[in-house]
Amino acid sequence: xxxxxxxxxxxxxxxxxxxxxxxxxxxxxxxxxxxxxxxxxxxxxxxxxxxxxxxxxxxxxxxxxxxxxxxxxxxxxxxxxxxxxxxxxxxxxxxxxxxxxxxxxxxxxxxxxxxxxxxxxxxxxxxxxxxxxxxxxxxxxxxxxxxxxxxxxxxxxxxxxxxxxxxxxxxxxxxxxxxxxxxxxxxxxxxxxxxxxxxxxxxxxx
Amino acid sequence: xxxxxxxxxxxxxxxxxxxxxxxxxxxxxxxxxxxxxxxxxxxxxxxxxxxxxxxxxxxxxxxxxxxxxxxxxxxxxxxxxxxxxxxxxxxxxxxxxxxxxxxxxxxxxxxxxxxxxxxxxxxxxxxxxxxxxxxxxxxxxxxxxxxxxxxxxxxxxxxxxxxxxxxxxxxxxxxxxxxxxxxxxxxxxxxxxxxxxxxxxxxxxxxxxxxx
Lengths: 206, 212
Fold this sequence. Notes:
Chain A has helices at residues 2-6, 25-30, 50-60, 73-108, 115-139, 151-165, 175-185, 188-205, and strands at residues 38-40, 46-48. By secondary structure, chain A is mostly helical. Chain A has a two-stranded antiparallel sheet with strand order 1-2. In chain A, strand 1 (38-40) and strand 2 form a beta hairpin. In chain A, helix 4 (73-108) runs antiparallel to helix 5 (115-139), helix 4 (73-108) packs parallel to helix 6 and helix 6 runs parallel beside helix 8 (188-205). Helices cover 60% and strands 4% of the residues of chain B.
């Protein structure tokens, strides 16, 4: 999403986690810890971790973008602050809920979690959504940090797409998040990513 | 200094700096900021401090540091945090019940899993630091969460040689040593307050009286 936003050239290679592609030697050369996503520069430099990649792409190309205006210290600091909140309070909750409720049973043959555990995971996820809601309310805008779409919105969107499209949780009881989600979908880059995610998912399930 | 126990972080004048009531937070002129990594990054970038500690102008070197910082929360904090929360701060300051022996062991094992991850990260390093030849923000960030449990629980580093060596290297840095001394003092004061003063002055049910 970030690469499309800032309009740099890149080649995409999707990794099939169900078939363990991330453990294959060619991928481990790019990313020794087998984590996704990862990138490989033309000059051979490799790195992983979504946000680190986004920051690297913007800084190395010296791209001026409202996504991460690295020349404006205060705006950048607020984005970093928002990113930390999303990382600490939201990301892990989405990943653990989605892994246990969807990915493990669907792709790795694990049993679905029992009702108690599922409730525990979903409650934690709801708490994470409350944190996002608090950001939107506090910053009085359409986006997480106010009136402008930033890296925080893109990052939170990645995980919210997982929640919504895998039907882990409905946003109908989270009107403010629902409204933010619809606003984000109006962005062409975001919508392209979301549709691509759904397609990949369908192919995976098939 | 903010007294979390007294709920100072939820009242003025602190709440105007940080509406979340979160610590840490800073106020730079009129600009308020919280979240510790955001604060560190902002101070370095706004004061234009060029240092291998956080080379904000070198995109590649920075990416290596950021890569570790981004994973630190899931891979490390989430494994070492529970031991600290449920066996130290929870019972002492937040009115949590004392954990059972089983739970203690469970959190200890989780912390050791965290050490395993850190040990593996360090085993790839030639200089004993996480990134490059000198200590970086990544080392400091991992150090904080290690230090918290090494100094207060039995999650020792006996079985993790790389982590142990790295820990001593970071500890020896003067800035770190200063902070650790101050923190140890504050921790002793806080425990004294909770164990001896509070039971005398507070009949609130959420605080359990404990004489040591």
